[in-house]
Q: What sequence folds into this?
């Protein structure tokens, strides 16, 4: 039987084709693997199906930004504004490979959010 960690590593590689050396336990999907927007939506849906994970409570917008080049300037300036103020950028809750392994093993989404956030996907 293949360990869950290896199955998740293989899943990330198959979906992203990122260099396997970048797929580490503490690698973040958005920052380190480069998954965002529609690609992130597809990856998370496929992940939930493949590993039979109940995604109840998952807040997509807490982790990923929007898709499309049309809003790139807006995203850039919004991100720059937050950086200048010393604030974290919006959609900055990281998902690590370790989080995905925990979700795959428990079959439920392991991260919890502040009460004032709303689920948007």
A:
């Amino acid at each position: 039987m293949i360990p869950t960690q290896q199955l998740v590593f293989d899943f990330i590689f198959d979906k992203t084709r990122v260099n396997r050396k970048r797929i580490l336990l503490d690698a973040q999907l958005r920052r380190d693997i480069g998954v965002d927007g529609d690609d992130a939506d597809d990856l998370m849906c496929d992940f939930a199906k493949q590993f039979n994970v109940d995604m109840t409570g998952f807040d997509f917008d807490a982790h990923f930004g929007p898709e499309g080049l049309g809003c790139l300037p807006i995203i850039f300036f919004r991100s720059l504004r937050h950086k200048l103020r010393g604030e974290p950028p919006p959609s900055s809750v990281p998902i690590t490979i370790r989080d995905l392994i925990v979700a795959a093993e428990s079959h439920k989404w392991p991260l919890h959010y502040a009460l004032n956030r709303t689920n948007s996907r």
